[in-house]
Amino acid sequence: MGLDLGKIKIKRFADGEIYVQLQESVRGCDVFLVQPTCPPANENIMELLVMIDACRRASAKNITAVIPYFGYARADRKTQGRESIAAKLVANLITEAGANRVLACDLHSGQSMGYFDIPVDHVYGQPVILDYLASKAISSDDLVVVSPDVGGVARARAFAKKLSDAPLAIVDKRRQGHNVAEVMNLIGDVKGRVAVMVDDMIDTAGQL
């Protein structure tokens, strides 16, 4: 955008509370707050909320929360009884804090966009990765796109189509618990090929 970063003061009190003060006027401005909610997720989400609130109270015209990594996105549904749908909760918090729009990258599932009562722009990192692979001059005949689980097949298939319909392989795994997965089978032929594994997020990287 050719703009300088805005000036903001952020500090922590002794008890861990977050303090935010804008160091310049944002009155009547379109503000873009760039804040991934990667680890420490809780800290970064709260910091984002306080920054949104500060901009709203400083009379910003529009506030767009740019969230490259949307924390709690995997908690987008209940898989067992008495669970929270935390993705919806975080969406509510961002909206109530005063954001007018959200821009997120490669959400865990598209349904998360529906949790917001404000517009959501969902962008993808796929073009950047495709450009990188093109720079390596790897023949599409030597590539195989791998989905790390059955749930990611649609994402991997769409990626494979961009690579001249490269073949697809699927990892069949079973989850033993949070952040614990056991590979059961590999469906597809990867021998002698350059495997490109496509996933929406890497947490522990255990399944990779």
From TrEMBL:
Tell me which residues make up the Ribose-phosphate pyrophosphokinase N-terminal domain.
2-98
CDD domains xrefs: PRTases_typeI
Q: Where does it sit, as one GO cellular component term?
A: ribose phosphate diphosphokinase complex
Q: What is its EC number?
A: 2.7.6.1
Annotated GO molecular function terms are: ATP binding; kinase activity; magnesium ion binding; ribose phosphate diphosphokinase activity
Q: Which reaction does it catalyse?
A: D-ribose 5-phosphate + ATP = 5-phospho-alpha-D-ribose 1-diphosphate + AMP + H(+)
Where, if anywhere, are coiled coils annotated? Answer: none
SMART domains according to UniProt = Pribosyltran_N
**Which SUPFAM superfamilies does the record associate with it?**
PRTase-like (SSF53271)
Which residues does the UniProt record annotate as the domain Phosphoribosyltransferase?
138-206
Q: Which UniProt keywords apply?
A: ATP-binding, Kinase, Magnesium, Metal-binding, Nucleotide biosynthesis, Nucleotide-binding, Transferase
**An example Gene Ontology biological process:** purine nucleotide biosynthetic process
Q: Which InterPro entries match?
A: PRib_PP_synth_CS, Pribosyltran_N, PRTase-like, PRTase_dom, Rib-P_diPkinase
What family does the entry list? Belongs to the ribose-phosphate pyrophosphokinase family.
Listed name of the protein: Ribose-phosphate pyrophosphokinase
Q: Which organism is it from?
A: Citrus clementina
